[in-house]
Structure formats: structure tokens, C-alpha cells
Amino acid sequence: MTTVLTNARLATMAPGLPGLGVIENGSLVIDGGRIVAVGAANDITTPSGADVIDCEGRCVTPGLIDCHTHLVHAGNRAKEFEMRLAGASYEEIARAGGGIVSSVRQVREASEEDLVTQTLPRLDALIAEGVTTVEVKSGYGLTVDDELKMLRAARQLGDERRVAVTTTYLGAHATPADYRGRNRAFIEEVVLPGLRAAKVQGLVDAVDGFCEGIAFSPEEMRIVFDAAKSLGLPVKLHADQLSNLHGAALAAEYQALSADHLEYTDEEGAAAMTQAGTVAVLLPGAYYFIRETKKPPIEFFRKHGTAMALATDCNPGTSPLTSLLLTMNMAATLFHMTVEECLLGVTRNAARALGRLDTVGTIEVGKQADLAIWSVESPAELVYRIGFNPLHQRIWNGHITKGILS
Ligand code: DI6
Ligand code: FE
Questions:
Q1: What's the predicted TM-score (pTM) here?
Q2: What is the pLDDT of residues 114-135, one digit of tens each?
Q3: Confidence of residue 8 (pLDDT cuts 50, 70, 90)
Q4: Is the per-residue pLDDT at 405 higher than 70?
Q5: With a 6 A CB cut-off, is 168 part of the ligand 1 pocket?
Q6: By the number of CB atoms within 10 A of the CB, which of 173, 200, 232, 323 ranks highest?
Q7: 349 CB under 6 A from ligand 1?
């Protein structure tokens, strides 16, 4: 089954080309779910019998990649949001049963099927804006069984929809009430056994942790990372979000795929990440929602050539966001990122942050045919507009599918 796209403004994101790697009046050939030819119209011959899609001058990008989400969760924290608007402090909210523990309680009460049912609308919102790969973390179960339940639900999402789901084990997200003040015991008795079980059951693609004063220390994260390494799993880290614990440097030391948030990262951290090939995943939704004022050090990342990615961080507490288009606009407006940085951040660099750059993230021969066709004239419009979705068609693994199911 061969499909040819013609008359497209291809934003290939290919590393060999300048900027977004734009090919004007481009064509591309899809065969067996892969891109088998791409170039200027004159250089591409349409195989006989191929299905031809005339893009009528539209922009075509790689399918978008949301490389940091807590998409699987139960219930919501709108009540807590209202309390915050009315001036309640974090402690007051926690005392009223809010905060991360309320999400943990709701996830524990939910069945695997409930989790899938509650998550699909969020996944569908992402898909409707051209997402073809999404990373999903555990971290609201905090028992071995509940963490595995979250990961199974995440895997199931990939069976329910035409989208690739990668799973990240985030057992070291928060300390549950019964282990308060006993982080080491929690790591030994829950986080590590959960990780080993997830690995044996094929449920985990990467390992993450929340390295912060209110969560796990760098020394505690080392225990988790050493276990991940011994299982052959790549690591990621929620680093330097609320304070500088030198999480970026720690992630780099472990050759992490990414370090994420990074508002408080210093120049040494940025330099170490570049050296290690660790991607800086920036999360403007969380920055916006918690009214953070310290911006991530974009100028250090630029100076040192650190690859930057963007993601929604979709979670019920600090980023109830399911739009990568809005995420790009926020990154441009709040973090002063350029259009190129934003678009590379949800395609090529997001693929790198998931260790998937060999198969997705750019429009190049040999890659999986994951594409988004947009009713816009220039790629900049994707970053510029707010609350408008110009997706014309989405192609996942060679399947043409604007709708979520077909
Ligand atoms: N960083 C965050 O901002 C969220 N998790 C994390 O590691 C908070 C999650 C929540 O409040 O539910
Ligand atoms: Fe997060």
C-alpha cells in the first residue's frame, strides 16, 4: 500500500538542513508505514497505483511528540484550584485532603479500566492536535500493584488509539503517608521492587524521579538510577523545578535521556547536559499554572547547544494541559523561545528525549510515516495562534487518520 503526498510545504526537521528543514513544493512517498522517499516535487516519481494526497500547499510536519506527561490519572483537582484562587496555602490544601495525595487516593481506588476510560479524552485531545507519540508516566500509585496498574493502563492506551505510547516508571514521585520521613525504606520496599516487576512484565521504557526538597534527594535518586542502569533502562529526571539541587548535572552523570523542568538549573548543569547528550525538556504549562516567575535558563542552553524539547506535563496538580500547540505558544511568549526552537521541541528533540530519534521526530527516508498536515501557510502559525486547531489530517504509521478511531 503506497501513498504519496504532493504539493506540500514540508517542514522536515531533518538535522542536515538549516532551520526547520523546509522543502517547498515537496513530495513524499509512504510504503509499508515508512517514509521511502522525500524531496522536491521534481525529484520524486509517483509510483503507479499509489494513492495520491494533494496537500494543496499546506504545511506538513512530523507528527507531534508529547515527551513528558502524567496523562494516566483519576479524578481532578479543580476544587484545590478554587481553594488556591481563594488564597489557600499549600499546607491548608494538603490538610483538606488535597495535593498529590488526593490523586494517589483516586488512582488507588480506580480500576485499570477506569484509568483507561478517564484518560482517553485527554489522549484524544492531544491526538486531535496532531500528536502521534506520547510518553506516559506512572507515579500516582505508589504501591507496587498500583504503579503496575498505571503502566498497564498506559500501554492499553496504545491499543485503543492509533498513537505510540512510551511508558516511564515514576515510582520515586512522592512519599506516601505510610512512609512519611522514611524515603529510603520506601525506595527499598516499593520503588525498586515495582521497577523490577515492571521490567519483567515489559511495562517500562524509561525510569524517572522527582528530585526536589519536597520529594527525593540526589542521593536517593542515585539508588533508583543505579537500579535502572543495572536493568538496562534509560533514565530521565524532574530536576531543578523549585530549587537548584543540581539535578541537571546528576541526570547528565547518568547519561539521562532528558532532564525536565529546569527552572533553577545553573550554567554548569546546562554544560553537563550538553556533554552527556541529555535533552532539556521545558514545561511552560507547569510554569504558568503555578505562577512560577523563575524562567528556565534558555540562554545557557543556547550558549552550550543543549537540545531543548517542550511537553505538556499534563497532570492534575500543576499542569492540567492537553495542548501541544498552546504549549508552544507559551514557550514562545513566556520563555522567549523562537518558532524554530518550539517546533523542533515537539518533534526532533522530543523524539530524542524519548530515545526514539532513530524512528520518529523528523521527515526523513527510513522513518516511520508519522505526519501532521496543517491548514496553515507557514509553520510559524502553529506557534502564533492561541486556541485554534488547524490540523487537516494526521498520519500515524502510514495510516491516514484525522479522527481518533479510524
Ligand atoms: N512535578 C510536578 O509539577 C508534578 N509532579 C512533579 O514531579 C506535580 C504533580 C501533582 O501535584 O500531582
Ligand atoms: Fe512532570
A1: 0.98
A2: 999 999 999 999 999 999 999 9
A3: very high
A4: no
A5: no
A6: 173
A7: no
Tell which residue, 62, 124, 127, has the closest CA to residue 351: 62
Q: How far is CA 62 from the centre of its chain?
A: 15
Cα dist from 148 to 133, 140, 218, 283, whole Å: 21, 11, 25, 26
pLDDT band at residue 403 using 50, 70 and 90 as cut-offs: low
Q: Is residue 185 over pLDDT 70?
A: yes
Distance 164 CA to ligand 2 centre (A): 19
Name which residue sits closest to atom 6 of ligand 1, judged by CA.
210
Best residue for ligand 1 mutational test, from 79, 100, 135, 287 (most atoms within 8 Å of Cβ): 100
Task: Please identify which residue in the block is written with the cell numbers 492534575.
Answer: 316
Least distant ligand from the CA of 260: 2
d(CA 55, CA 26): 10
Does the pLDDT at position 58 exceed 70?
yes
Phi-psi region of 79 (alpha: psi -120 to 50; beta: other; left: phi over 0): alpha
Instruction: Name the H helices within 128-217.
Output: 144-160, 183-186, 192-200
**Closest residue (by CA) to atom 10 of ligand 1?**
317
Residue in this structure with the C-alpha cell 534558555, named with its chain if needed: 298
On whether the CB atoms of residues 21 and 12 are closer than 8 A, the answer is: yes
217: Cβ–Cβ under 8 A, 6 or more apart, which residues?
183, 211, 245
Distance 159 CA to ligand 2 centre (A): 24
Whose cell is 496543517? That residue is: 374
- 135 contacts 101 by C-beta, under 8 angstroms: no
Report whether residue 93 contacts ligand 1, using a CB cutoff of 6 Å.
no
**Of 94-108, 326-340, 363-377, which gets the smallest average pLDDT?**
94-108
Which numbered ligand comes closest to the C-alpha of 107? 1
For residue 323, the SS3 value is: coil
Ligand number nearest to the C-alpha of 137: 2
Q: Dihedrals φ, ψ of 120, to 5°? A: -55, -40
Burial class of residue 88, CB neighbours in 10 A (0-12, 13-18, 19+): middle
- Ion ligand 2 neighbours (CB, 5 A) are 313
